[in-house]
Amino acid sequence: MTSLKDLDDAQFAELYGSDRFTASVLSSRMRYIVQHMCTGLLNNAFSLILRDWYDFAATISGPPEQNYPMSSVSNSLAMFLGTMSEAVRNTIEEYGPENLEPGDVIICNDPYRAGNHVNDICFIRPVFHEGKLISLVTLRAHQLDMGGVVPAGFSGTKHNVYENGLVIAPMQLYKNDKPVKSAFNLIFDNARFCALLLPDIKTIYQNLLLGEKLILESVERYGAEAYLGAIRYSTDVSAESMSNALAELPDGVYEAEEGIDCDGVDDTVEYKIRLKITKAADRMELDFSGTSPQARTSINAGILDTKTAVGVALKFLIDPATPFTSGAYRPIDIVLPAGTFISATPPDGAVFLYWESTGPVLLAVFRALEKALGRKAVGGDYGSLNIHNANGVLADGTPWVTTAQCGGEHGPWGATEAGDADSYSVVYQANNLDPATEAIESELPAVVLRKEYAPDSGGAGDNRGGAAVLKDTLYLTDAEHWSSPLHTKTASGVGVYGGEAGALGATWVFHPDYKNVTKDKDLIGTEPEVYAGATPVAGMLDPKTKTVDPDGEYFYFASTPVWHTKPNAVFRYLTNGGGGWGSPLQRDPERVRRDVRDEYVTIEGAYRDYGVVISGDPHGDPENLKIDQEATAKRRAELAAK
Amino acid sequence: MGAVESSVPEGLSVPREEVTDADLQALGVNLERDFPGSTAADFRRYPVLSEGGWFTVVKHQKTLESVSRETGPLLGPIVLTSDGLDVN
Asked: What is the distance between the alpha carbons of residues A505 and A511, in angstroms, rounded to a whole number?
């Protein structure tokens, strides 16, 4: 097949309805449009999950006769991107494209039809030009609550779709640009916090109108034929780019296994992903046969979420430079049985914490392709959002809720050939903001006491994995909590190219009868002695000291499905560490000294993990640390001989 | 605190159906010309998810070249609880 670059002008015009320059301009403009919609939503959203977390994404899709190609995606929540092309196709095909009219907004939030979870509603706006449907512009945005047994929903303990929340099949939300009252009532009679949902939905609607307006301006200027051609061109660019990237990998069969600790019923069942990747020429097939059956509670992911994880992993590893569209999947086939915990089915396979199950999908791709990538391999990240969902009531009776603000949601990435890893981001599949401490504390009866890095937690390597994040949050009122650290048994921070894996994380609650920050007017320390009286929530811990011990006992996140706390309780989250890249013995001792100065690595860790002998006082006199070169050479020789 | 042991239940798989020489001929495949050295045993039929949704493919297993890609059900193997419900 002729490369896009090798098409002559006539061939290009015949294929795409315009000259090359126009197609490029329109492709860029579509990306500008979805980004503009997201900026509009970010600036005007009311709920914290949108305003502070950036929990939304926008896309443009082509019309039914093109089979709904997704030509552009926003630079926002990546977990949505692989689901959106199918979400639009499945929603509109069920609703009936022939039933669409100008002024409509169609919604769907069913994880089995549209991916993600019930709080992530797809708002789809058909765009008509001269009476013809030429495009669909979509905003998918997390709604603060969608009913179910857990306020705000973030829990791995819900047993089925009925406990999970309201499922909306494809239906009309706006008709002739007027709200369909019965549709709003369906949501508002089932969801909490509607005083926030209503203005959020109105903001979403306004940004759909913005997207539609900008598309129509583009069509007016360049013509419908060029616009529709640019949709095809955008996806063809992605497809060709992914094919070229695949062709660079050595042919072969690559296998890996990954998993999560358990579900929300008990800890007797582990859930494993088995992945077999076959790569030949410029094609790839990923077969998930052998993967564990679906979980008994809402830690499952849907099929489309797994598709996203595959796409994000491959874009990340081999084709990061070109825009992500539905065309990226053209040379890739996914083989996935229904009814696994990464392809759950209704009504028992409840889907909510879908990223917890598809994070291991991404890590499995990373593991499987490590050898094929060689120096291009990338270390694993902290592996779990460790998401925290809590709620209560203020003294005046006002209900409050916090989602994804006060757990271990941000943490480290893995190292790469290019350098050390970032230590404070979100998992590879997300692309979100970090909620500001000031925003959290102004809206919630919660105080963020600590956000700091844990020394010696990043996977050692020529390039070091990111450091684990330790975060303490004080809750000032009675509260109920759902805590969901799901990847604590084994390291998620996979080490690559000779690098070491990152450390294990854990979660604890310090009840006020053991440590009372408000009364003591002091923080809870981080020395090992403080954990003995803490209550473990999750992690591999020494049963006596309650400190992290990879050979200790597993403490189970839902042993208490709902954690009820009195005022002044503190939750402590320690994320996993990121994976290292390359042999730690190759790391320049000067870089290790700098890590000790910055307290990413201790003097003991420098000796143990890197074979670098350092003396001095990192905390009191950090600029005068000394390397003992002779002792370092000797220690490194010892480690190399092992 | 955790139980002493946990188990990993047996996983689920996608079966790959065998295809015959007649199947391949019906698809216009000439083995000698298109896949020299291969036989019908080198091909399988199974569902995949890719760009454009679900397909049932007949694919040469070594080269991953599809000789047939038929559009599959909109939701692939998912069966909704409302599937089959006749509201008329």
From this structure: 20
